[in-house]
Amino acid sequence: MKLYDALQSRALRRSATAAACLALASGAASAFLFYRVVAVPSATVALIAFVLGAMAGATPAAAAGILLHAIEENRRQADALTAIRPLMGDLPLPLGRWACDAHFAALIVRTIADSRPSLVVECGSGSSTVLAAETLRRLGSGHILSFEHDAAFADATRRMLAHRGLNPFATVLTTPIAPRLVDGETRPWYADSADARVDASIDLLIVDGPPRHLHSLARFPAIPLLGHHLAPACTILMDDGNRPDESRIALLWARRLHAAVSFVRGGKGAWILRPRTPPPEAS
Length: 283
Fold this sequence. Notes:
By secondary structure, the chain is an alpha/beta fold. It folds into 2 domains: 86 residues, no CATH class; 174 residues, Rossmann fold. It contains 9 helices and 9 strands. The strands form 2 sheets. A 7-stranded mixed β-sheet has the order 3-2-1-6-7-9-8, sandwiched between helices. The chain has a two-stranded antiparallel ribbon with strand order 4-5. Helix 2 runs antiparallel to helix 3. The protein is globular. The two termini are 37 Å apart.
C-alpha cells in the first residue's frame, strides 16, 4: 500500500495521536528530571530536555503505530481476498496497483450479492469488471456496462471476460475522454456516446475512473451526467476513498443527491452513497 494512502488512514491518525501523547509525557518527565533531580535550575536546559525526551518517546510509538496499521491492513486484504477467491477462477486476475485491490473488489461483490442489480454501470474497467460479471453470472441475471478511456485496458478486460465466458453479462465500451459541460463548466469525462448506451435505470454505479491526473475532481461528473439514470434504490461505490479529491467528491455527491454516505476503511478506502430522494436531472 502506498505511504500516501497510509498517511490518510484513520487508523494511522489514531496511532499518531497516541504517539503525540506519549511524546508529551516523555518530554515532561525528562524536563522534570533535569530540572529537579539533576538540580539544574535553567528553563533553557529543561526545554532542551523536554524536546529530547519527546523525540525519544515519539519515535518508537510512531513506529509501533505504523506497524500495527500495516498488520491491520494486511489482515483486511487477506480477509477480502479469501472472500472473493472462489470468483477469481484459474486464470490470472490482477489486483492492486492500478487495478482495484481485494478490499474494493470484495465490496463490489458483496454489494451485488446483496442488492442483485439488473444494471451495473462502471467508470473504469479491469478486474472489478470481471468479478462483477462473475457474480452476476452466479446470481443468474444482471449486466455490467463499463466505460474505459484506454483502448489497451478495454481490450485486456474484454479478453479476461471472454476467457471466462462472461460476455453475456458484461459490455466494455472504449470511450475517449472528451470535454463535457458539467454545472456550467467544461470538464474532461467520458464522451457522451457512453451516456447514450445507458438504456435502463442504474442499480449500482461503480466509480473508479477517469484517472485524477485529468482534473482535480476527475470523477465528479459521474453524478451530474448520469444522475438521471439512477434507480431510486441505487448504490454508488467509489474507490480511492483515502484521497482528498475523492473525499470531497463524495461529500459533493451526497449533498447533491441528499444521500446517506459512509466511508469504508481498508485498502485505498471507499465511499458508499445511497440517495434518499429521486436524483436530479442531468446538467
